[in-house]
Design a protein that fits this description.
The protein is an alpha/beta fold and about 450 residues long. It is built from 16 helices and 13 strands. The structure holds 5-hydroxymethyl-3,4-dihydroxypiperidine.
Length: about 450
């Protein structure tokens, strides 16, 4: 497999999952600090208070990434570190990211900065959170503050990571912070997250920078070939994928999905004000594609029957248990669905695509100072193969980011799911590079670190 010159080969993390140091440098509390502190919300009562201690150990971590041969690091900025109360900028908070970016550049690693990966300042949640329209405007101010501080060195910007999870898991099923269980509220939150993306993209747009957002896609695979199966797939795909993608591509909310969700009480429709969909369609430069697994769907006899899948408006269909081989999380390994996803996205828009997250949790053991995670090596081999298939079919893929650089705080699952290229012993904070990290680094070094072909933009420039 050869990949295009200039391809971004990276690994990703998110602030709350790795940084720790939740009270240092004046950082304010986030919704995840509050949620994790509440009993029974996170497995084993785990929190991100220490996590990977990346706040103090980032030079070592960036050194590991660079030494592997990767050329890009996708990280997120903690809004409550930069604005402890959600509104007032903290110089100490920004200074941390200043040091982080300088460290990356000194190691020739491209910084790919995500502005929001779920750690909303608690003060803004107290003021209404994402269901409040004002939060979108506060986000644009926060984005501007970060951009003013780092825009001279950071070229690649992602506004929001996986608005699906922030809205539907945070305010719908309640398994993520802030733990609200109300589908109507979740739909309004989703709209405000997309609005926040558009407002920030408009506010920051300018020469020399590239903007994106990262959506998590779950391709719907019908478990049969009847029209009812196709309809089940339409419903799942609609609320999981197109509800977020279509407005960003400038098509507005998909009418079939809007009619599916209408029975929730109509607060969603009322929250979409004139001009909002134009804001959400602010031009971006590439789309971040987060892919882990497809969903196998089957119709129910009664099209109005409740679904076993807790998403707004989903009725008349169920999601079936994943088919093997599975990851430790129980997620299906289906690399070919990644190829079809990339091809489908490319058929819908000319935007360049970056696989912004892809990876798997497995049970890893350190033996004699090494981690032979053969299952994860195989996972990366197959999924890179899938990306390569898409490239050969003419899809414009510009990069691949493994989730994650480090084993880390896996949200409601605490520290029980290890996704890292680097093993972290959470007792000692000792890092051990896994075989999969070496594998990915070897592929990166053998590919795409050269000068882009004529006419191809160098994402690192
Ligand atoms: O850990 C998460 C990440 O924060 C967002 N995407 C999926 C990953 C694995 O669950």
């Amino acid at each position: 497999m050869t990949f295009p010159a200039g391809f971004l080969w990276g690994a990703a993390t998110a602030s709350y999952q790795v940084e720790g140091a939740v009270t240092e440098g004046g950082r304010g509390p986030s919704i995840w600090d509050t949620f994790a502190a509440a009993e029974g919300k996170v497995l084993g009562g785990a929190t991100g208070a220490v996590a990977c201690d990346h706040y103090h150990r980032f030079p070592e971590d960036i050194g590991l990434l660079a030494d592997l041969g990767l050329n890009a690091y996708r990280f997120s900025v903690a809004w409550p570190r930069v604005m402890p109360d959600g509104r007032t900028t903290s110089a100490a908070g920004l200074a941390f990211y200043d040091r982080l970016v300088d460290e990356l550049l000194s190691r020739d690693v491209v910084p790919v900065l995500t502005l929001y990966h779920w750690d909303l300042p608690q003060a803004l949640e107290d003021a209404g959170g994402w269901p409040a329209r004002d939060t979108a405007f506060r986000f644009a101010e926060y984005a501007t503050a970060v951009h003013d501080a780092l825009g001279d060195r950071v070229r690649q910007w992602t506004t929001i990571n996986e608005p699906f999870c922030a809205a539907f898991l945070g305010y719908g099923s309640g398994v993520h912070a802030p733990g609200v269980c109300d589908h109507d509220t979740a739909l309004v939150a989703a709209h405000h997250l997309l609005l926040a993306h558009g407002l920030a993209t408009r506010a920051l747009a300018g020469p020399g920078h590239e903007f994106s957002l990262a959506l998590n896609f779950a391709p719907a695979i019908p478990d049969g070939s009847s029209p009812a199966h196709a309809e089940a797939a339409r419903k799942f795909d609609g609320i999981h994928n197109r509800f977020f993608l279509d407005p960003v591509l400038g098509h507005g909310y998909p009418p079939d999905v809007v009619s599916d969700v209408a029975f929730h009480g109509g607060r969603f429709a009322a929250s979409v004000l004139d001009g909002d969909t134009d804001v959400i369609a602010a031009p971006i430069d590439w789309l971040g594609v987060n892919y882990y697994a497809p969903a196998r769907v089957t119709p129910l006899a009664d099209p109005l029957a409740p679904s076993n899948c807790p998403l707004p408006g989903l009725r008349g269909m169920d999601v079936l248990p994943a088919k093997g081989p599975l990851t430790a999380f129980g997620w299906e390994q289906a690399p070919s669905a990644l190829t079809s996803l990339l091809e489908w996205l490319s058929s819908r828009s000319d935007l360049p695509l970056v696989v912004a997250e892809n990876g798997a949790s497995f049970v890893d053991r350190v033996v004699d100072g090494r981690v032979f995670d053969a299952a994860r090596v195989n996972y990366f081999m197959e999924h890179l193969g899938a990306v390569h298939h898409a490239l050969r079919a003419g899809v414009d893929v510009r990069g691949y980011f493994a989730w994650s650089l480090l084993d880390n705080f896996e949200w409601a699952m605490g520290y029980t799911q290890r996704f890292g290229l680097v093993h972290v012993d959470f007792e000692t904070q000792r890092r051990t590079v896994k075989e999969s990290g070496r594998f990915l680094g070897r592929v990166a070094k053998a590919n795409g670190l050269g000068t882009p072909a004529e006419g191809v933009r160098d994402p690192r420039a």
